[in-house]
Structure formats: structure tokens, C-alpha cells
Amino acid sequence: MNSNAAIIVAAGVSARMGSIDKAFINLAGRPLICHSVDTFLTSNLFDSIVVVVAESKYEQAKNVLSEFVSNGVKVVIGGSRRQDSVRNGLEAISKCTFVAIHDGARPCVALDVLKRGLDAVEYAGAVVPAVPVVDTFKRINELDQVLTTLERNSIRLIQTPQIFKYDLVFRAHRDVLRDSPDDAFMVEQIGEPVTLFDGDPDNIKITRPIDLKIAESILISNRGD
């Protein structure tokens, strides 16, 4: 029987938020990190859940997440890079069939996305949620001159949770040492295919102060306030 684990990564420095730790910012009545942890826990789709935080925020995180810790969620300390934090999370969970890796800065992740991802990974070793782009993308040079216009139909915006066979993503984290933008890239680097599944436009990542207002609107709308 398959077993599923989730790693929620919240160990970043939040540079574009003015170095404010966005994981603990109040959002729609509770700390931002609590929203995604709550979605994963109450989904009942995961046998274990790990939240990875910066060492300096470890005690604060355990306090903020105390209601989840009492329900089996584990808090662990991250590393200097995102991929180091994910590696710590992988080592903190019991070996499982599939593992979902999610950005803690995406508080609006929906249950439907989790279900679609777990369904998709049954048929592929690595799956990531994606949404179509609506803007025009242009490749430029160092002088900000346009080199070419990219075809929108062949571009997707990638989200999380990215879901993998545990053995596959663990191997990628063991073998790929270069700085990597996400876990899917690391899997690509060891020559394994990555398949897309339908993401959710509301599953935004909080990177700027304005994103907090957008996310709050989404969360309030979803709970029917």
C-alpha cells in the first residue's frame, strides 16, 4: 500500500518582503504558514508532514505550529539553501512511496491540487502543478534588448506541491550539488522525466507585500466569510 509524506519548506530569508519573515505574518487571522499546514493535515492524504524552518525561527515555529505538532506534524531545521532544507526534510521523514514538497509561502494551496497531484504521480515518478501563462515573454540580452519572443503555448508557470517517488527525489538531492531553483530541476538533472498536472491560479506564492492582500482575499473567499 502506498504511503505519502509532505515537506513544507519555510526556511527562506524573505528578501523581497524587506527581510520580514513572511511565514509568521498574520494572514486572514492566523500566521501565514498555518494555512498550508492546515490544508495538508486536514486532507488526510499524508501519513507524515514535516515543516522545515530556519534555525533562528525553530522555537517560534514550534510555538506557532503547536496545534499541528500535537497532531503529529514535525518541525525541523533547514539549511543554507532551499535544496539543503528539502534534503533535511527528506531525511526527517520515514521512507515512503511518494513525497510532496511545498513552498510554505503558498498559503492558498487547495485540496483539489493535492488530490490531482497524488493521482498523477501514480503514473509518473515526478509531477508538478502548472498553469498557462497569459503574458508575453521575451528573451533579452545583457543590454535589455529583445532577442526573441517566446511562444506562450510552450510555456507554463510552475507551482508547488511538486510530488515525487521518494527514492527518485532523494537520489536527485544526493547527486545534484549545483544550486537548483526547484526539486523538479534536480530530477531533470539526473535525466528523469517530469510531468505536469493542472495547477491552480489561486495558488500564488507570497513574494511581495501586495501578494498578502491578494492571498487574504482568496482565503476569505474560499472560506465564505
CATH architecture: Alpha-Beta Complex
**Helix segment count?**
8
Reading off the top of the CATH hierarchy, the class is best stated as Alpha Beta
Give the low-pLDDT segments.
none
Alpha-beta classification: alpha/beta
What is the CA-CA span between the terminal residues? Answer: 39 Å
Radius of gyration of CA atoms, rounded to a whole number: 17 Å
- Give the CA-based shape: globular
CATH superfamily: Spore Coat Polysaccharide Biosynthesis Protein SpsA, Chain A
Order of helices and strands: EEEHEHHEHEHEEEEEHHEH
Largest sheet: 8 strands, mixed
Look at the structure and give the mean pLDDT.
94
Q: Quote the beta fraction.
A: 15-25%
User: What is the number of independent domains?
Assistant: 1
**CATH topology value:** Spore Coat Polysaccharide Biosynthesis Protein SpsA, Chain A
Total E-strand runs: 12
Helix content: 25-40%
What does this entry look like structurally?
This protein has 225 residues and is of the alpha/beta class. The chain has one domain (4-223): Spore Coat Polysaccharide Biosynthesis Protein SpsA, Chain A (Alpha-Beta Complex). Helices cover 34% and strands 23% of the residues. The protein is built from eight helices and twelve strands. It has helices at 32-43, 58-64, 66-69, 82-92, 111-121, 166-175, 183-189, 209-223; strands at 4-10, 26-27, 30-31, 48-53, 74-77, 98-103, 126-132, 138-140, 146-149, 156-158, 162-165, 195-198. Strands 1, 4, 5, 6, 7, 10, 11 and 12 form an eight-stranded mixed beta sheet that branches. Strand 8 and strand 9 form a beta hairpin. The longest helix has 15 residues, at 209-223. The chain is globular and about 55 Å long. The N and C termini lie far apart (39 Å).
